[in-house]
Amino acid sequence: LLILNRPTDYFAGLREILVYPGAFAVTRTETDAAGVQHAWRRVHLGESSSRGQVVLAWDAVLAGAADAADGHNVVIHEFAHQLDQENGEANGAPPLRGAARVARWAAVMGAAYAMLHQQVAAHEPPVLDPYGAYSPAEFFAVATESFFERPQHLAAALPEAYAELSSYYRVNPLVW
Ligand SMILES: [Zn+2]
How far, in Å, is the centroid of ligand 1 from the Cα of 137? Predict the structure, then answer.
């Protein structure tokens, strides 16, 4: 779905897809600026790494596919990350051709991300899944879920972001 009209029909960096039966716990460690190591465990329904791996919880995959118009789909979400990771760590900016396009993407998506952030902070009804306010990378993944599953909503709420995503994915789900 995400690469329908691409000249190539594969995810360039993807090596493997792991499917677990259900949600899985991931332990992360990080060393902060003071040299202190932090470790935490988090439960995930999916994960995508810049080393070419996507992990999916099968029950979440089924739940996401059960309603194709609710804006939630873990497969679309993780594979959007995988596209974002084609040029390094996920940062909300997948590879785009040309400086003008990169600049336009940054301006449009940055403004939409800031708007969602503000709505979540102000406890206003968010235009997208509030998880998208976590980081620009999550914003891109969450916006992609909306783009494919709730195109009317996204096009009405964030028309410029919709246009950027339509140009990037080379499809217009509004006419489907
Ligand atoms: Zn994500």
Answer: 7
d(CA 100, CA 103): 5
E-assigned strand segments in the chain:
16-20, 24-31, 37-44, 46-49, 53-57
* The CATH fold of domain 16-175: Collagenase (Catalytic Domain) (3.40.390)
Distance 141 CA to ligand 1 centre (A): 6
Report how far residue 24's alpha carbon sits from residue 37's, in angstroms, rounded to the nearest whole number: 23
Q: How many Å apart are CA 1 and CA 76, to the nearest integer?
A: 8
Query: pLDDT for 70-121, tens place per residue?
Result: 999 999 999 999 999 999 999 999 999 999 999 999 999 999 999 999 999 9
**17, 56 contact by CB (below 8 A):** yes
pLDDT (tens digit per residue) in 151-162: 999 999 999 999
